[in-house]
Amino acid sequence: MTQPAIQVQNLCKDYGAIKAVDLINFEVAPGELVGFLGNNGAGKSTTMRILTTYIPASSGYARVGGFDVMYQSAEVRKRLGYLPESVPLYPEMRVEEYLTYRAKLKGVERSGRTKRIDYCLERSRIKEVRRRLLGTLSKGYRQRVGLADTLLSDPPVLILDEPLSGLDPVQQEETLSAIRELGGQHTVLFSSHHLPDVEKVCDRVIIINRGRIKFDGRLSDIRSSVPSVLIEARGTIEQIEPHLRAVSGVLDIKSIPTDAEYAAFEVKAESGHDIRETLAKRLHDKGHPIRRLELQREKLEDIYMRISVRGE
Amino acid sequence: MTTATDTTKPMEQAPSDMRTEEPTFARIIGLFGGGLAILGIIAVIANHSEPRLVPSGLGDLFAAIGLMAMLFHSLRDGDLESRRAYMFLAIVLLVAAVVAALIPGPLFGDAPTKEMGYHFIPWTPLFGLGALLFLVTSLRHETVDSYRSIGLTVLLALGASLCLISIALGIFKPNTLVGPGILIALLGLGYLVAFLSKVDSDDGPGYTVATILGVLGGATLTYAIGKAVFPTVLSEGPAALKNAFQQYDNWKVAARGILILACLGFAAWAARAKTMAGWLRAGLALVGLGFAITFILGSLAAPNPATPEPFLVPYGLLLGGIGFMYLVVSVGITSDSPLVTLIRREISSYFYSPIAYVVLFCMATVSGVGYAFFLNGLFVEPTLEPMLRNYWGATFGAAFGVLFLVPALTMRTLSEEKRSGTMEVLLTAPISETAIVLSKFFAALTFYMISWLPLGLYLIALRIEGGQPFDYRPIISYYLALAACGASFIAMGIFFSSLTKNQIIAAILTFAGIFVMLLTIMLKRFDSVGIGFQNVLAKIDFLSLWQSALGGQLPLSTVLVQLSLAVFWLFLTVKILEARKWG
Fold it and tell me: Which residue, A136, A291, B365, B447, could crosslink A232 as a Cys pair with Cβ 3.0–4.6 Å?
């Protein structure tokens, strides 16, 4: 069995009484492109900083490339490319100069260093600003210089903390393209608030809230999940719900607040059962006219809102 | 107009119409500087016939200020006419440097004999330095390949020639090292460093030149050590290992044995170091082996019957210093070691900030004032050798200079990295906390020592204008003492910088730390302090150390205390950085 590129088990990080990370477990396979979602203060950056050996965990363990982040941190750092949220750069250095400096620190061999730097400039789409001072670059370019830095030593694992924050739509699209191209050759774990962008590039999503992982699933599974039926009919919840439960194939019914004369429900059915016609006929027969009937597939945004806003 | 699909042009360029800002202020300064320089030069030349309205000294000052103003303009204005004019000025200065070196003098006045090189010091190094600065600033803006190529060729040719000449002088005419030799060596290094800064030193010709510089420096250093040591060892023979009763002294024998083992160990390490190139491994192994064989030979026999001439002080030290300087610069440029890479970036970062130039200017001015007081003292009454014991460096003025210099150098070392977030990027790269701290330390110490350079360089003027030699060797022991004390102060400053994100707080803490040390030393002056405590204070009294050094003595125990303090503060700093991993 292939060793996971990232392995986290029972990881905790406490800041006094505050549990920033609370018993999280996940694994990332080599070549996977994983989106790490959560509100501010959810524990994303803390988790990433533990994985990059910058801060220690309070308990549990984490491994990158098979090496423990605490006890084999030097080996981990050789196999890691990290882009922090703030993209700190030295304003007085030029782009190429900075990348050369970082390449030397990361042990990139002299014989192929110039070619490697050219490749990273090309890949991150910053070749045209190679001679510019870092202090004069826009946020988008700075972000991409940070991305080029992460690629210098061709590390197997890339950890990118909010690489899209503060970028305009065009910059976001360009950065996303660069990240998308990295998947497969590299294992990428990147955090973001911007759900549509995560949906565009990631294979898998992990949602963290208040230090705990609330969702960990493949986007393909979300897209192919069983849709629920949204139905609104005239009558009260007490009147209509029994009729819905009586329909064969119904698994779960959840009432949704609506106006006084109507009751709304979200009905989940067994996989492969389209119960819309059956529900509509049943309620009509029982004297409850239908105002709305639609198939609703749960999107990532719904899951995220459910977890991060409603705390489910 | 760029579109979202146009990938050939930068997407984020705004406003759409960009105009380069004209360097009007720089041009005004340059014009003013040009006028002032011409006035100064005319004043200097005219004063040679008879005293004029503008005295010669003021003329020198006008010329210097004028040239600095022109240099500022050259740095800021990339206009074609401007950069070509300054390139031409650089060539004129080069020609003037060569003429000053060759023309018999004195040029003005009637002298019975005129000798070549009379005007070498100070004009050749001064003109040479001026040419270098104007060449570098004009090349900075040069976009035409042919002119750029010519400029780089001039830098390389001059740099290589001057470096080789200085080494040749050191080997064949060592008495020229004091004065012309060291100045030629520094100038040559300046030209080569300027060349290397403008080409890719990671690969190609730049890397080759830097490597050759290192080989030259290493060979020179080896030669200097060898010439200083070998004749003495081979002349003294086994007698050097014996005591007054002509019996072998166990300690001396043990020390010689350790030395031989160290040389053999170095040779073995060099031969096995797979990370180095083959030719380098072979060369270093041969050097180690050669030294070992010489020491073994000198322990068994005295094949050199003649008493060797003293070489170590000052020629050996100066030639070895030149070789060491070349070697260090070469390693700094070519080495891929993370520590060397970090040190190089740190040193460069000092010179990106205008504060560095303000600090250098202030230290040069303050040292100049101290030099003026010292000169005044010499005129008041005759001074016995070593007359440098009364030099400004031994006074409280120097201590107060350190009080402000060290916080200025160290306050941003780690605090700025923490504040800006670059510390996170550094510590998540495959480098150790020790390397980060040491790089900050060595860079700050280097800049600190550069700040003290004018203090020694002023003595060259004393030698030239005074016309008589004096014992300058105490300045060497003084620089060693300064380096040791600087190491402990800077290490303390870096430690305080590691405690906070605020540079000002770091500076205040460092200032307070040095001030407390100064006050503690003052306690030694009070009779009420017990003898035991007095002895302790004597070991940390850096003012007494400086005074002793300028008197020609270097108390090793006090130097070791300062170095130990440096190690202590650096150790603490590494632990502070590592503490983030303690949970």
Answer: A291
